[in-house]
Amino acid sequence: MKSIPIAQAQSLTDIPGVGPSIAQDLQSLGYEKPLDLQGQDPEIMYKRLMAACGTYVDRCVLYVFRCAVYYASTTNPEPDKLLWWNWKDTAN
Fold first, then answer.
1. What number of CA atoms fall less than 13 Å from residue 7's CA on the CB side?
2. Is the pLDDT of residue 14 over 70?
3. Spatial separation of the C-alpha atoms in residues 35 and 17, rounded to whole Å
4. pTM exceeds 0.85, yes or no
């Protein structure tokens, strides 16, 4: 999977795995561009989104948030880590 380097990414939908719906969720949390996600905590972002929605939000959104923050925070991301489903919770 070839992705746009973070330095060139302009739109939230340039982030691998982020479509219009997730981009809208991120914007509702105050993130306007990919670089805004650098160093953010996906778990906190997910909890903030649920609080804003006033209801449970599917955990798949958390997995996309994890992937998006990794992408925004990593200069040379590993291709496997740019697939949101590789960010699922792991059983202990």
1. 2
2. yes
3. 16
4. yes
